[in-house]
Amino acid sequence: MSFRVAASPHHHARVQTSTLMLKVALATLPGIAAQLYFFGYAVLIQLALAVVTAWSAEALVLSLREKTIVNRLKDHSALVTAVLLAVAIPAYAPWWIIVLGTAFAIIIVKQLYGGLGNNLFNPAMAAYVLLLISFPQQMTAWTPPTALQAQEQSTFDPVCLVFTDFSCAGYSITQLKTDVDGRTMATPLDTLKTDLTNNKTVSESRQQPMFAEIGGFGWNWVNLGFLLGGLWLWQQGVIQWRIPVAVLVSLGICSSIGAMVDADQYASPLFHWFSGGTMLAAFFIATDPVSASTTAKGRLIYGALIGLLVYLIRTFGGFPDGYAFAVMLANVAVPLIDAYTKPRTYGHKAKGSE
After folding, report:
1. Contact at 8 Å (CB) between 287 and 243?
2. Directed axis angle between helix 123-134 and helix 95-103, to 10°?
3. Which residues contact 18 (CB under 8 A, 6 or more apart)?
4. What is the pLDDT of residues 256-267, one digit of tens each?
5. Are 123 and 86 spatial neighbours (Cβ–Cβ below 8 Å)?
6. Which of 166, 172, 203, 350 is 20 to 30 Å apart from 140, CA to CA?
7. Cβ–Cβ contacts within 10 Å for residue 220, how many?
8. Residue 144 has pLDDT above 70, yes or no
9. HEC profile for 164-220?
């Protein structure tokens, strides 16, 4: 009898890593469909660029390491990294943003540490943080949903915008961020943060058309799509409930306390849950089997820490949506969390006992 020693991710079910990763990619489809409906098909362009770059970068590094290329590409881990990064960046970001970010995620964050199972951080989020810090203007160039834009887009405008930074009619991203009332729009989280610093209340800020009864207009459906995909992953046994539930409960508790203290300055839990990348982070990013905690108690602590950090960064930090930073900071804490939450060995006698 022989035993095969393999790197993480480990899964108790008799399912191959390629199958698990493919299910994760498929589970993003409801959220991607919502993004397509509200923000246009530029999302598909970003996805195509990310996937091609991820496969090319992975193949290049594997060839340099003299590893089998086809079999490693078939584990679909590069595909998942590409998809998660592509849906996290603005739909009309310049083409080189997604190419640079995906190449960094695969070559530096993943392969430099030995490939799948050895990376310290979630590759997609590490690349997102790099891009956000290095190119803040391009990474915050979110346009409002197409229904709220002042300039109606033509069929080929998404292609022109991604590859030339201008629409076919010559409009820039800045001009396309203007709504039908002539106001420059940003994401709901960014708008709320800006309005609060200008002494507006939450209720006054939410009178704008970019806000819905629950979350932000369009963003609520995007989050609902990723929530449905995440629940399907849980039903399929791909992820466990502890991390996403801990993330959402922690974020909900923090935002509830804030709203009870001063509802004019702090948004409600529903707004936080259905704005920005909350559901994407809770179900698809925080649950990364390689960089997340591995113990039952540890996953609850890990998820709760992410929810707390997301709220603190959104409310008091300099970035409107802090899930990427929250996940990476929690990744750093994983060894400590696992060390103090690992189950006691059977028969182990506590120090000092007789």
Report:
1. yes
2. 130
3. 74, 75, 76
4. 999 999 988 999
5. no
6. 203
7. 22
8. yes
9. HCECCCCCEHHHHCEECCCCECCCHHHHHHHHHHCCCCHHHHCCCCCECCCCECCHH
pLDDT digits (tens, 9 = 90+) for 49-95: 999 999 999 999 888 877 777 777 788 888 999 999 999 999 999 99
User: Could you check whether the bond before residue 335 is cis, i.e. omega within 30 degrees of 0?
Assistant: no
Q: Label residue 197 exposed, middle or buried (CB < 10 Å: 0-12, 13-18, 19+).
A: exposed
* Number of Cβ atoms within 10 Å of the Cβ of 136: 11
For residue 336, the number of C-alpha atoms closer than 13 Å in the C-beta half-sphere is 8
Calculate helix-pair angle for 296-316, 242-261, nearest 10 degrees: 40
User: What is residue 240's DSSP assignment?
Assistant: -
Check residue 96 and give its pLDDT.
96
Q: What is the predicted pLDDT for the residue at 180?
A: 57
Nearest to 248 by CA among 279, 225, 212, 206: 279
User: What are 268's two structure tokens?
Assistant: 């409600």
- Per-residue model confidence (pLDDT) at position 150: 66
Residue whose token pair is 């369009």: 218
CA distance linking residue 218 with residue 149, whole number of Å: 13
Beta carbons within 8 Å of 276's beta carbon, 6+ residues apart: 187, 188, 189, 216, 219, 223, 314, 320, 321, 323
pLDDT-based confidence at residue 6 (cuts at 50, 70, 90) = very low
Phi, psi of 179 (to 5 degrees): -90, -175
**pLDDT value of residue 169:** 79
In three-state secondary structure terms, 161 is helix
Q: What pLDDT shows up at residue 15?
A: 63
Domains of the chain: which residue ranges?
16-185, 188-339
Please tell me the predicted confidence (pLDDT) of residue 14. Answer: 52
Closest by CA to 148, choosing from 93, 207, 218, is 218
Stretch among 22-36, 210-224, 339-353 having the lowest mean pLDDT = 339-353
Which residues lie below 8 Å from residue 173, measured CB to CB, with a gap of 6+? Answer: 92, 141, 143, 161, 165
Phi, psi of 171 (to 5 degrees): -80, 140
Cα first-last separation, the chain: 40
